[in-house]
Amino acid sequence: MPLPGTPEPLPVREQRVIAALQCDGRVTAERAAAVLGLGPRDVHRSLKKLLGDGSVQVLGSRPRDDAAGAMMLRVRVLRGRIEAITSALAARDDIPLIDVSASGDEISAVLLPGAGPGNRLVLEQLPATGAVTSVSAQTVLHVFSDATDWRLDVLTDDERTALTPESGPAAYPSPLDGPDEAIVTALEGDGRLTAAAVAARTGLAESTVRRRLAALLSGRRLLTQVVVDPRRLGMGIDANVWMEVPPDHLDAAGRALARHPAVHGALATSGTANLCVAVWLRDARALYRFLTEELTGRSITRTETILVGRAVKRPGRG
Fold first, then answer.
1. Looking at the structure, do residues 110 and 256 belong to the same domain, yes or no?
2. Transcription regulator AsnC/Lrp ligand binding domain spans which residues (predicted)?
3. Which residue, among 233, 279, 239, 274, has the nearest Cα to 258 in the 3D structure?
């Protein structure tokens, strides 16, 4: 069964609209309706409701180019002291993700790469905290997939292809110039802002915004990410699965698992447990099937599954 307190899932039609946004965060109601076989007014109402009440957020996202070198933290905390530690971690700009385990005694967090302060957190500050009983930190060596790659499995392949905009080869990852940086920054809070709204925020001409925005999207220098509570999609189980994989099978296992519909993040890391996948699944039975069927035949020698009880900080949600 899903964890207690799971909200009612959204209707399938609205889930399909969300999946259309995952393909193209700036898709119009008319385009989504034509591909999904729905009425444009129905799609417009769904978009207005989902985006208006906060059920769904569409955020502009920069391509990942610095994920390697981030640290995956696992912090064991005395019961009754978890709130103080999560609050302190959540206040840091270099920690974009914090989860608390269902058992209530472990924090999982991502620490972005950087200099001194991050190292001091791991080596000095957390270990010296009386509420913390242990800290482990694995460095991310390779990202097979992350949340921007995840797609809700409610569309056909043809629908997904039709909704996904064509893009050219990824642009060379040089720094954005001033106008492009201003456009990307404006869209990080709302990836569906109109060109007119972006122009008003940046002081750029609307025609300039349209031209540069099209180039940013085509060159994949600006992505869109849909943020939604997975429980509203019928996913009552949120879990992180840590695995030990021999080096000669690590890349193949990571790539294969990254393509699984349940996986919204797959990372190769340092340490004995060198592959971590984050999964959203319907219930405990689905998790059991994932562990016993999808992980077999991949030379995995050991697994550890951590159920997430509460997402404290995630993109758009903290």
1. yes
2. 241-308
3. 279
Residue 95: give the domain boundaries: 71-145+235-313
Torsion sign over Cα 89, 114, 278, 126: negative
Among the candidates 168, 196, 228, a domain finishes at 228
Residue 134 in contact with residue 76, Cβ under 8 Å? Answer: yes
Number of domains in the chain: 2
Residues 158 and 55 in one domain: yes
pLDDT in tens, 71-113: 999 999 998 889 989 998 999 888 999 999 999 999 999 998 8
pTM of this prediction?
A: 0.85
168 and 45 part of one domain = yes
Which residues sit opposite 239 in a β-bridge? 279, 307
